[in-house]
Design a protein that fits this description.
59% helix; disordered N terminus; Rossmann fold
Length: 649
């Protein structure tokens, strides 16, 4: 089954290197490809933290047993602990409880769950804003964290009451025996909603019409009996997609049959087939097709040969022309090539079952499978769509078998200095899939923080981290995304800094809470005098009038400007001009100019510089700017305790 092959090119999207030596390749196109891939991935996996996604869920949400009790508990105690069996919809219930709260104008966000420089990783009263709606997902928490959170919850509740805030906590079912007695009165055990009614609601919301008898089949009933809530939603989504792509003569019964067929468990059949397929090359071909399902015969063959090499399988010394050809080999494993030249198993769902079997029942080769996959993705001939599907399949198995560090290792290897920039979208995707995983997402958030603060992290990996934080982490953990983007903007090259700054700008654009969080971080960095780019970040990101009426915002602005004014005039002159232009609006003039005046302090040198910049600004613009300059001078004098002449008796 072995064949020799040379280099061939497919879907070249930039400079292509086919020989020895080094070259410089523009990374921008691959950063854009990574962004597009993560956005497409996010559209298929909604995490319902944003308001738009919560509204999408609310239309499809079927309140479970215990929902009304949970509503009452949250309203009266400001804390509700949501328990229940896995698959009963605990996370969705907690989100809907917070989403439904009346009269709340604050954002809804998930509490940080890692140890960052601004958060201890447990319940922090600094995370509580007035009217805040907070989610804490402990469904996959380990014992020590669950116990620590319970200890901290008592003080945190007092902070909730003081701010009129609410907290919904998703409890870990397997650790129910560790729940403290005094918290049990705040706990509601929800029941699993009717899966048939839930499926019907999803279908109707998606505009899929059906007859009541269409949902009464035995195969559907068998699936619904065991399926978690998210799998019921997944079935509805598959039916919707089949409706959009099926021929016009096919209707709902056909869509339902095909959707269930793709869901059917083929594990027993795979186990039986493998007991017959004892040949190493045949098994390598089976797994290669399962992982690179829907690719060309050449891709599958190259992957199979590579797998045999990684596993040190002895070569077949039979002359090539005396061996079976690839058509016969594929036929033997019940695969075929379709009209587009892509190889697939004949049985739907068989590829998933093969992957599950190898990762479950051959645990001793998982490390070699990781190495094999790393090398296969380096092949430039593999088109982007095939890479995307293969990465998703590999990541699913690594996360399912509790090997999340395989994905972290892949990202590091693919972003090493000597590898191709073509791998940027693949590295971004494996990290995003890890972040989205319920069990292991916290590990990836912590790892990304450590990369972001480490001086050893390469700029290529930093560019990937910016994309991952902005497109994936920000959807569910915006606070933690902001912290990491801030560190990346501080420490990286000019290009990465610009990308991180742009991501921060988008992140804080419509969220006042995040804007205040960033101002607070910039204040700490500038006041402490630590080296970095905080002064230039402040000048680029701070808004002269946004929330200027809040005392804590004005104090942060004053502190930041005080530090900034210590540097060369050229570095802040344009920013001051922008602030003076904002001060032409009479609604904000007093407060904006007072911030600049207080930042000058009692230092006559700095006051003089600020005033001279204002004079230059007044000469280059519209008439009438002199009044703003006069007001600035008056504010500086007042801040320094100098009484205006007209006030002297």
């Amino acid at each position: 089954m072995r064949e020799s092959y040379g280099t061939y090119l497919s879907e070249a999207q930039g400079a292509v290197h086919t020989g020895a030596g080094s070259q410089f390749v523009d990374q921008h196109i691959y950063v854009q490809a990574a962004t597009s891939r993560l956005r497409e991935q996010a559209s298929r996996r909604k995490r319902v933290i944003t308001e738009e996604d919560r509204k999408h869920l609310a239309a499809r949400f079927l309140p479970p047993a215990g929902m009304q009790l949970a509503r009452t508990l949250l309203a009266t105690s400001q804390v509700a602990l949501i328990g229940g069996l896995p698959g009963s919809g605990r996370q969705a219930t907690a989100l809907m409880l917070l989403h439904e709260l009346p009269g709340s104008h604050s954002t809804l966000h998930e509490l940080p769950d890692t140890s960052d420089d601004t958060s201890p990783g447990l319940l922090d009263v600094r995370e509580i804003d007035d009217g805040a709606r907070l989610l804490l997902d402990l469904s996959e928490a380990e014992e020590s964290r669950f116990l620590a959170v319970q200890e901290a919850l008592f003080d945190f509740r007092e902070g909730l009451k003081a701010h009129g805030a609410h907290l919904a906590v998703v409890l870990p079912h397997r650790l129910g025996y560790l729940l403290r007695g005094e918290l049990k009165r705040l706990t509601v055990e929800i029941g699993r909603p009717s899966p048939r009614r839930l499926l019907a609601r999803h279908l109707l919301c998606d505009g899929v019409t059906f007859a009541p008898e269409d949902l009464k089949g035995s195969e559907l009933g068998s699936f619904l009996t065991q399926a978690p809530v998210r799998d019921v939603a997944g079935l509805a989504d598959r039916i919707r997609r089949l409706r959009e792509t099926s021929p016009a003569d096919r209707g709902f019964p056909d869509w339902l049959t095909d959707a269930l067929l793709s869901q059917r468990d083929q594990s027993a059949r795979v186990a039986a087939d493998l007991s017959v397929q004892q040949s190493g090359p045949r098994r390598a071909l089976l797994l290669s097709l399962a992982l690179f399902h829907g690719t060309t015969p050449e891709t599958v063959l190259q992957a199979a040969n590579s797998l045999l090499t990684v596993l040190s399988h002895p070569p077949d010394i039979t002359p090539r022309l005396e061996q079976a050809d690839l058509y016969a080999e594929l036929h033997a494993i019940e695969a075929e090539t379709d009209a587009n030249g892509q190889v697939r198993f004949r049985t739907p769902g068989y590829d998933q079952a093969v992957r599950n079997h190898f990762w479950t029942f051959l645990p001793d080769i998982r490390r070699q499978l990781r190495d094999w996959f790393k090398d296969r993705l380096i092949d430039p001939a593999l088109p982007q769509p095939d890479r995307t599907r293969a990465v998703e399949r590999f990541a699913f198995q690594a996360l399912r078998t509790a090997r999340p560090r395989d994905l972290i290792w892949l990202a590091e290897q693919w972003m090493a200095r000597e590898t191709s920039v073509r791998l940027i979208p693949d590295a971004a995707q494996v990290l995003a899939l890890g972040l989205d995983d319920d069990r292991h997402g916290r590990l990836f958030r912590q790892q990304i923080y450590e990369w972001a603060v480490s001086p050893e992290t390469g700029n290529r990996l930093r560019r990937v981290l910016v994309v991952v934080c902005a497109e994936t982490m920000a959807r569910t953990h915006p606070d933690q995304a902001l912290v990491r983007l801030h560190h990346l903007a501080r420490r990286a090259s000019a290009q990465v800094t610009a990308e991180a700054r742009a991501a921060l700008t988008r992140l804080i654009a419509s969220d006042n809470r995040l804007y205040c969080l960033l101002l607070g971080r910039l204040k700490i960095g500038i006041v402490s005098g630590r080296p970095g780019r905080d002064p230039e970040l402040f000048l680029a990101l701070a808004d002269p009038v946004r929330l200027i009426g809040r005392r804590e915002v004005r104090e942060a602005l004053v502190s930041c400007w005080t530090g900034v004014l210590q540097s060369r005039v050229e570095s802040w002159e344009k920013a001051e001009a922008r602030w003076l232009t904002a001060a032409e609006d009479l609604r904000h003039r007093d407060q904006v100019l007072r911030v600049l005046a207080l930042a000058c302090g009692a230092d006559p040198r700095i006051s003089g510089q600020v005033y001279r910049v204002a004079l230059r600004w007044s000469r280059t613009g519209q008439t009438g700017r002199s009044e703003t300059v006069t007001h600035l001078l008056r504010s500086i004098n007042t801040a320094q305790g100098i009484e205006p002449y007209d006030s002297i008796a």
